[in-house]
Design goal:
heterotrimer, A mainly alpha (502), B mainly alpha (145), C mainly alpha (501), A: 502 residues, mainly alpha, two-stranded antiparallel ribbon, 2 strands, globular, C: 501 residues
Chain lengths: 502, 145, 501
């Protein structure tokens, strides 16, 4: 039996939450559904950890679905890069679900909760599937599974605030447009190569050589995924979706969905199209670099003027995604390392911050910064978690945010791109402004009259503090994450062994 | 609508053949156009026709929404469950060869079972969607027809 | 106890004190007692380390590897030992003084105050003991964050605004300039270790050295080099014990200490003078000295005047680094000790005046001398030390800086230093002058027929404030006579090549 499980681990990673989802829908009560979902998330996390351990040293695990060999069959292909992403996704689920118990109970009526957890499990399935698969069309399928369930999850915030419905609808339209672009792009490269398996695509694309269809395919995929990862200016769906969704949903989705989309971009750009594909390098320099820089600044500036805490964090996320794209645009080993390590670092930081926002909503009934005056006194632990997360967002030393910034600036200086290095630092300064607004309000202003606020319940505080602890732990001793990121970058660069012959 | 004899009688005549046709499409996916998705939709059409003629509440009495939600889940479970069974029998996920001795027969069995799961799921979902939308509007009074 | 253990102990005591203070918050006497006991223990351990270092030991401890190649490492060398001794010694003094001041002025939130204080001292010691630039940067940032609640302590809108300027300027300079400089150094040299003779020689194109130096000089915002000095006057909204220790000793001294460390162990004094890269810094520092002194003359608020005086004095040390010779380093290092002793006395006197007489402006101090004799005598002593007259410690550091300027052939700087002393006389000695020799302002009658009372109940400051003030004032005199030992000690700072210019 253990041998059976071990041999089928890659499939189980996705099958487990997939099978659990309909079962969860049939469990009548909210707490039964919650307990079941949490158990499944823990099991999925355990599977991710064992897959990460197996691939950390550089091995690649290949699993054939249905026993059909690739390139005809669908292959699940795991190397250190996607094992890393799998761990982030399932880890966040394992932390958010215990947190969700009280938070969801307060925001969603009891008879709807089993469906909420069902949708959550489906979202988890989708994200895990995107990360683990080695087949291009399969990526699209799982991407849609995760997106559709996310739309439903965002809409379930409508019991608290009706605007969640429009936010979800907006997200649905834009997300579907993005997915459509993506699948058209895949169609184009299928057209010229006749295969959908990513490893096979890589060889056949190089055999085929550069052509207009290939470039179009690249552009369509780039834009489709760009919308999913909220690349400026395709980010318009994100602020509303994150603000009005239930907090547990925001915490999970903010920490995972965009990261998985960045992973898809990395995978397609470097494994499928090849690290040294000329057209791609041009695009990165002329399109992605300016877009990333603008995202970093524009989003941070907008964040400064927000009163709603969740909305501020949502704009901050757009800026952080700008950092990831910037690392990508450098097209060097250090730059890729920065992007990959920031996948983890940002997931941990933003997860913690959104959890804290949820604690505020539960105890204080509001997430408006001006109403949260003086909350440092009433909710000391929660606010302290916010300060720690905020410091990571700014990029102060001893936090994970610092590690990412360090590698980004190092990558810029290695290339001699002075202005970019200074711009990266300048955007950190903007982060100081919007984080410190909250700190000032929480600690240095008196509380509003006649309002009592109690500390958040332990089931919400502990996961938030676990994430804060991780953000400090991996900021003090970042060797594990940076080595994993470095090896993942090696994989991406090395996967295109052949040089493009023009 | 009950007062419209022609509609009533014709629908009573049509619904059983529709259901039979749905089953035909379901099982003949191997040999011709068909399979779970199409069959599921056709199956649902029968119920929707009943709802159009006799009212959504009547249809909801016949197929309660809770049953529909459960059967949608069961449909997915049949599909995924087949995969799990094949894993337990030693093959990879959805490796149908484990289901019988001869590979061709095994593949046939595998496809038939998973398509059945798909059919159940699709039919349940289509009917649920119809009920969800139809229940929003207040029933039209007969005078307004 | 081995040296390495002593090092860790010296850092652990203030850190653990933080938690002890937090736990005893409800019992003020125990809490304040813990502060004093911890400060004495820390000083004892630091003295033990000083003994070892003077005998030639260089203890080193590596804590953790943060990123591949970048570790948190503590290694003591003479310069760091000096700073640590100054910081931990003056912690005792300020702890005692804080108790008197905070209770006398009945400030709120004292527990938070003492916690942040302990953390700030821990960071200052960590900076002093840093073995590489990475560690120094980390604790440099921790120091900024830990002193923010101290600056914003009063929680009034002015306090918040002042704290915002404080944090804003320090964070901007450290993230925008210093971090970029640190990463650039890492890229060039492949190491961040502080080594005698510097790590940059041979690794960098000499044309770039002035730029890297500029990034460091302006990035080390805590050294208050103009034009990034505004945080220092802005931070005067803090209660005076904060101003005293942090801005006369720990925070600003961390800044100039970092400047000295970077100049001596990253660039290397010989390399700097060979490439002439610090020429421009000589001029900027000189300008900073003069401009700050002139601004100090115009300030009526006592603490603001002292703040600009600090800006000026810190630029002395920056000048020492910029002159790029051994005398410059020695003069600058010596000035850390001398200025600390003098400035802390001045600030504590300012605080004592506030507690006893509720006066904050220089113009209000007329005739206050006879009522608060001890305070103003100590103020005079400290002023004379800052001005640089014997028999007070400041005379020696000024002397060595003049020597350094002469050695470097910078005649203009000699003039600048002299001028600065004259300006110091003008804005510092004016205060005790008015206190002792000017007649007290006539009290205006407040209501019809009522005469102003002849004595307005002002007496000498409370004992808890007076004792530390006297201690540090005496310290100024002691340092004058102890300079021989100090000079010998500072000669042991390695400046390669051995015959550095």
């Amino acid at each position: 039996m253990p041998g059976l499980i071990e041999a089928n681990l890659p499939a189980l990673q996705v099958v487990l939450p997939l099978v659990a989802a309909p079962i969860c829908a049939m469990l009548g009560k909210g707490s039964r559904a919650w307990a079941f979902a949490t158990l499944v998330a823990f099991l999925a996390f355990a599977i991710s950890i064992s897959l990460f351990i197996a691939t950390y040293g550089g091995q690649v695990i290949s699993y054939e679905m249905g026993g059909w060999a690739p390139p005809l069959g669908i292959e699940y292909r795991i190397d250190v890069l996607n094992a890393f992403v799998l761990m982030i996704v399932s880890g966040m689920a394992a932390l958010v679900l215990p947190y969700a118990h009280r938070s969801v109970a307060a925001e969603i009526p009891a008879e709807r909760q089993p469906f909420f957890y069902t949708a959550f499990l489906l979202c988890l399935t989708g994200l895990l599937g995107v990360a683990i698969t080695g087949d291009a069309f399969n990526v699209f399928v799982f991407l849609e599974i995760s997106s559709l369930s996310t739309y439903a999850l965002v809409a379930s915030g409508s019991w608290r605030n009706k605007r969640a419905l429009t936010a979800a609808y907006n997200y649905l339209i834009m997300g579907t447009v993005g997915a459509t672009f993506f699948v058209i792009g895949i169609g184009m490269i299928y057209m010229i190569t006749g295969t959908l398996n990513m490893a096979d695509l890589a060889t056949r694309i190089i055999e085929h050589g550069d052509s207009r269809t290939l470039r179009m395919g690249f552009v369509f995929i780039f834009i489709g995924v760009g919308l999913k990862l909220a690349m400026f200016p395709l980010h318009l769906w994100l602020p509303n979706a994150y603000t009005f969704a239930p907090t547990a949903v925001t915490a999970f989705v903010a920490a995972t969905a965009t990261k998985v989309a960045v992973y898809v971009l990395l995978r397609f750009m470097f494994t499928v199209f090849g690290f040294d594909y000329e057209f791609q390098a041009e695009t990165l320099k002329n399109v992605l670099l300016p877009v990333a820089l603008v995202a970093m600044f524009a989003a941070s500036l907008v964040a400064i003027f927000q009163d709603d805490l969740k909305r501020m964090l949502a704009y901050s996320s757009i800026a952080q995604i700008g950092y990831m794209l910037l690392g990508l645009a450098f097209l060097t080993h250090t730059g890729l390392m920065a992007t990959i390590v920031h996948l983890f670092n940002h997931a941990v930081t933003k997860g913690a911050l959104f959890m804290v926002a949820g604690c505020f909503i539960l105890s204080a009934g509001t997430s408006s910064i001006s109403s949260l005056r003086g909350i440092g006194r009433d909710m000391p632990w929660t606010t302290a978690a916010f300060v720690a997360g905020g410091m990571s967002l700014i990029g102060l030393p001893l936090t994970v945010g610092f590690i990412s910034k360090w590698y980004l600036v190092q990558a810029a200086l290695e290339l001699g791109w002075w202005p970019v290095a200074l711009l990266i630092m300048a955007s950190s300064l903007l982060a100081i402004v919007y984080v410190w607004r909250v700190v000032e309000a929480a600690y240095l202003k008196p509380a509003p009259e006649g309002v009592t606020r109690r500390e958040a319940p332990l089931s919400m505080l502990i996961p938030a503090w676990i994430l804060v602890g991780l953000s400090i732990w991996f900021g003090v001793s970042a060797t594990l994450t940076t080595t994993a990121a470095s090896r993942a970058a090696d994989v991406l660069i090395g996967s295109s062994q052949m040089l493009w012959e023009e | 609508m009950e007062h419209h004899a022609i509609l009533r009688v014709v629908s009573k005549l049509l619904i059983p053949p529709i259901l039979v046709y749905a089953l035909y499409v379901q099982w003949h996916g191997d040999y011709g156009p068909g399979g779970g998705f199409q069959a599921g939709v056709v199956f649902a059409v029968a119920f929707i026709l009943y709802a159009l003629v006799y009212g959504v509440d009547e249809m909801a009495r016949v197929v309660p929404p809770r049953l529909l939600h459960a059967s949608a889940g069961i449909g997915v479970l049949i599909y995924a469950g087949t995969g799990v069974v094949t894993m337990a029998l030693g093959e990879n996920f959805l490796g149908y060869n484990a289901l019988a001795h001869h590979p061709v027969h095994a593949q046939e069995w595998g496809i038939i079972i998973v398509e059945f799961g798909v059919g159940v799921a699709v039919a349940s979902v289509m009917i649920s969607i119809f009920i969800a939308f139809a229940c929003h509007n207040p029933p039209l009074k007969d005078e307004d027809w | 106890m081995t040296d390495a253990n002593a090092l860790l102990l010296a850092l652990s005591i203030p850190t653990v004190t933080m938690f002890l203070i937090a736990m005893s918050g409800s019992r003020p006497n125990i809490r304040d007692g813990i502060s004093i006991v911890a400060s004495i223990c820390t000083f004892a351990v630091v003295l033990r380390l000083l003994e070892s270092v003077m005998a030639g030991a260089r203890p080193s401890v590596t804590l953790v590897e943060v990123m591949p190649g970048l570790t948190i490492n503590f290694s003591i060398e003479p310069l760091g030992m000096l700073f640590a001794t100054v910081a931990s010694g003056l912690w005792i003094v300020t702890a005692i003084y804080s108790i008197g001041y905070m209770r006398g002025a009945q400030e709120k939130k004292q527990t938070r105050f003492y916690i942040c204080f302990a953390l700030a001292i821990a960071s200052a010691l960590a900076i002093a003991f840093s073995g590489n630039l990475f560690t120094l940067f980390i604790f440099y940032e921790v120091l900024t964050i830990s002193t923010y609640p101290l600056v914003a302590h009063k929680e009034t809108p002015e306090a918040r605004a002042g704290a915002r300027v404080y944090l804003g300027i320090l964070m901007t300079t450290s993230i925008l300039f210093l971090l970029v400089a640190v990463i650039w150094t890492w890229n060039l040299a492949g190491t961040m270790e502080f080594r005698a003779g510097g790590i940059l020689e041979g690794n960098i194109d000499p044309a770039y050295v002035p730029f890297l130096l500029a990034l460091f000089a302006f990035g080390i915002g805590k050294a208050a080099l103009m034009p990034f000095h505004r945080w220092l006057p802005a931070a005067m909204v803090a209660p005076t014990p904060v101003s005293a220790l942090l801005h006369a000793v720990a925070v600003v001294k961390a800044g100039v200490f970092t400047m000295l460390k970077v100049g001596t162990y990253i660039f290397g004094v010989g390399f700097l003078s060979k490439t002439g890269a610090s020429e421009w810094l000589v001029w900027v520092a000189g300008a900073s000295i003069l401009i700050a002194s002139i601004i100090a003359l115009t300030k009526d608020d006592l603490k603001a005047r002292l703040a600009y005086s600090t800006v000026s004095q810190l630029s002395y040390i920056t000048l020492g680094v910029a002159l790029a010779n051994q005398m410059g380093v020695i003069g600058g290092s010596m000035h850390i000790a001398m200025h600390a002793m003098g400035k802390i006395t001045l600030f504590m006197c300012a605080g004592a005046i506030y507690v006893a007489a509720h006066k904050t402006k220089v113009s209000e101090l007329d005739g206050l001398g006879p009522k608060m004799p001890v305070t103003f005598i100590c103020f005079t002593i400290a002023s004379l030390s800052i001005i640089g007259l014997p028999p007070f410690g400041g005379a020696w550091s000024k002397w060595y800086l003049l020597l350094a300027a002469a050695n470097a052939g910078q005649v203009v700087m000699i003039v600048v230093l002299m001028l600065s002393s004259l300006l110091n006389v003008a804005y510092l000695l004016a205060i005790p002058g008015r206190a002792f020799f000017a007649p007290p302002k006539k009290q205006v009658a407040h209501s019809l027929g009522a005469a102003a009372s002849p004595s307005d109940g002002i007496e000498e400051a409370p004992l808890f404030c007076l004792v530390p003030i006297c201690l540090t004032a005496i310290g100024c005199i002691v340092l004058f006579f102890a300079v021989g030992g100090l000079y010998e000690y500072l000669l042991s700072i390695p400046i390669l090549p051995e015959a550095a210019p």
